[in-house]
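Tutorial, part two.
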Amino acid sequence: MSIGAKYPLKKIREGKAELLIPDPKAYIRSNGTYEPAWAPVFYNPRMVFSRDMTVLFLRYLANKGIGISLALDSLSGTGVRGIRFLLEPGNVEKVILNDIDPDAYELINENIRLNDLQERAESYCMDANTLHYYLPEVGLRAEFVDIDPFGSPIPFIDSAIWVARNKSYIAITATDTAALTGTHINACLRKYHARPLRLDCDKEMGLRILIASIILRGASKDIALKPIIAYYADYYYRIVFQVIKGARKADKLIENIGYIEYNTFNLDRRLIGGYPLPTNITNERVYAGPLWINNIGDPHVVKDLLKSLESMPWLQTTDRIKKLLETLSCEYMVNTPYYRLDKLCSKLHKSMPKLNDLLTCLRNKSYIACRSHFDPRGISTNAPLDEIVKCINSLV
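Running the prediction step on this input gives:
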């Protein structure tokens, strides 16, 4: 029995791909919202933004003259991500799509045929880790590996490193933000070998913990995993790493792993080195980590992504992408975790000034200052805390 006979399907368009997906009308919650986890094959329309961003990154590589002979979409669901890799960036020759669920595997094949990609797309119905270890045995390694799981990506990292070529790219998603931001401390310790704290900059702390954890897994194999672009959106983290072989290069990255030093009295914070142990511990401060203490992304890549965006007018989330990238272009130049203005003003017993006025005040003092993409109430700045406080006092 075909999947179309077993479940109601609907044809949609995402990017340049035509897709058959489980009909959302059949999987509606009592409050009227679509619940993708209830469908027989997972398709999440909220992740269009993530997929648009990934396709844009591949177009950026194309504009740099970097071709992708093989891309790997290991947790494919309907196959939408891998199919878009073939249709949109212009530099991907072949994609392997995989899902362990037989219904998903059948729908992947239907969507491959629907988009006439039989010559360039290959499908598997395997455990993702098994596939990653199998492909090199038959002489295949990927230039782009996409890991988009439900929950933590950690179970797939070691095998993803194994299947990736030197100078390739690994893109990962993490949706277990409760562990990374300190709600479930033991889960973070188990999965990421780090201790989080409930801080006002918890979303940035979580991203930095995630980056460091993955870098350390690569370093154990003499592989440097360099973060190229990283961000938080909706309910997940997304990071693209470049894979660079070499123990010395991995050692250099480890030099950028340390801790957040946080003063609970005045909310001052800074990133400090000293992995595996923080240095200069004092009683009035608390520490979260280990985590990444360098810039979380490359502002030059962000600039090129904005240029590449101009050549992809069909993307559904163009305005949101542009807004994020413009914010990241500033935020990537700041290496102090963001301040939440409402929390800081509460600690100061001050009314909260307009955020734009505060940013202008700091810029007038020659500091970098911008909104944080992590939180609408957050500011990213290289200004010391006392200068931020002076600006707040002058405004209220």
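The chain has two domains: 3-292, 299-395. In part three we will examine how such features are distributed along the chain.
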